[in-house]
Amino acid sequence: MKKLFIILLMCVIGLTAKGQVSQKAFQQWHGDKYSMFIHFGLYSQLGGVWNQKQIQDGYSEQIRAFAQIPQNEYEKIAGEFNPAKFNADSIALLAKRAGMHSIIFTSKHHDGFCLFKTATTPFNSYDATPCKRDFVKELSEAAKRHGLRFGLYFSLIDWHYPYASPMSPHNADFITDAHHEYSKQQLKELLTHYGNISELWFDMGSNTPAQSKELYELVHKYQPDCMVSGRLGNDQYDFCVMADNDYPEKTLHAPWQSAASMFNETWGYRSWQARGKVEDKVREKTLSLINVVSRGGNYLLNIGPKGNGDIVPFEKEVLEQVGKWLSLYGYAIYQTEASPFQEEFAWGEVTRKNNHLYLFLSGKYPQEGKITLHMPGYTLQKGDGKMATYLQYGDEVVLTIPASAYKDKQIHVLTLDFDKKIEPLPEHTVKSMVLTPQNATPQYSYSCFDYYTNYRSITGYSWNFEQLLLKQLELIYTSQEAGRKIDLILDGKTYHVTLDKGKEQKATPLSNTVWGKTYVCGPGSGIFHSADTLCADLQQAPVAGKSWEQTAKEEGSFNCPPFCSYYILREIESPRSQYIMAEIGAGNGVEVYLNGKLITRHLNPYRTKFRTEKVILPLEKGKNQVILRSYNRFENQATYLLRPAEEPKAYRQDVILPDALNGKEHTLVLKPHNPSSPHTDAELSNLRIRLRRIAIKGQRN
Ligand code: H79
pTM for this structure? Predict the structure, then answer.
């Protein structure tokens, strides 16, 4: 008899996949929360001025590009570079007073000038300057002396190296083979001459997947516990980084960091920067630190010392005052986890640690001073008596706070102690017997090719559901998922399942399902990072100044330079709500929206010109609208395909639980098993899971 079910095997999953940092190193990095970024180099000497002119465009550390300084003129600055005031010990001591746990220093920025002694080029701070100093050495040693960890910024583009791609306005250039080898030599020096390196902050360029992988492995060969930044690209990194000064709307399920400059306009020293009031900047940066940490991230705040090595007094004061606030409230920042709540609160932010919940009164004073927290299953044991009164009614914890708590310039923090360790609280409880991507709480990370092609990826789905008795799960999927390996984590136990095709079924749509004409709109923005909803219809185009044009072709392509996208729209009339299968095709990246809501979004990891796939569309009764976005990063054309799938088939596979589950509330997490990177999209938006109270072997309804 054909085996119609599989017995689940519990498997022990290692804490980290091969090549990644150890869990201990990750925990240390994650707990540190707050670090100092330093932009220092030849550009610091210019301070944003060239030929007596303030260079307004671009960041001041990139002044060579924005003021179009010829190479030989720029090299001359090295001949005068003598930062007598650069004192690594005072910088490390400032970082300590600021409450920071590590220092990340620009070993080489885009200008190619190395702040360390290197055998690879004379264009370095030891050989090309009168000062003959190795700043990486000085800072690495000072950091160690003062109990700080030390990491390096390293630019993947280099405007000085003669065999690199030429300077461009976007800095996301391809890396030549010779340049890649040159970077490897410099990285080997940096990773072997300066003791422990806590993180390597790669920046810009556009690596191939092979180049990213090789550098990722090179770092871990010499420093197994060094955390690698997201700008290495191609999902080959330990922590995600968004655009400069950016952070995600929601908590990510992967380590992430927000890199912030003191002023949005520059990272390197700019002598003529309008700085405003210290107290306003202190509040701005304290709020950013709180926002980042409450979403589970690390905050990397930059200073840009002057060319003589002096720290700008304004920046020093800001750091010291944030440090003062941290000396009072650091317990609610360091070693904490993200807010357990899925929703945001107007009154402020939240973090948690063990059974403690920390409320930051950083937003607007709530109506009548009332804060209500929905915490099913938790009992409040103690509230912070100084500033609020506390009551618990069933699942709700209600605080009353006096207006004075918000009038103070300082941001106050309240501690609430509960009866047990606080875990993330579910967004909602699913009442349906079918768990779908649409009723799930997605788990997010950031996936990217490079700086301009990044997006919030969905690396897994989780559901909270009510079910008194659960004996069996039925997995429903398409031929596209067949053969893949997934992990189902049910109430904390991991089951490893191979999608072995189960029983094949035709998935023919209802007979009077009608696909309408095809419309196109474009070219649109090339930046892939976009919202999870798309408010467009035939009257409203997604690209400003463009309209939808009818086309006779379900499949086609448009000539357009890299970094652009085209939108394709079709209407589908459905006699009732049903799941149907569409066939789609796109270039380097794809997004599909149904009735304005995102169905799937991911990059084409193989960077092929065109990739087709199947997408399940949960249609509503009546008129539906599907929009495909085909994104082009590397080609000179954007290609699309959008039509009903031919001979659609579904697979149904039974998963019988070794022990029936009892109890009311359960959680299920769905993830790919051993993904190539924890940041890559799971591509599991076609899978749905039916819950069964009784085990049915080989029988379908
Ligand atoms: O080192 C800092 C920057 O110099 C570097 N990353 C941080 C940590 C960086 N290099 N390139 N980019 C970031 C991409 C930035 C692109 C832009 Fe812009 C920022 C486009 C618009 C704002 C640069 C600044 C170009 C125009 C203004």
Answer: 0.94
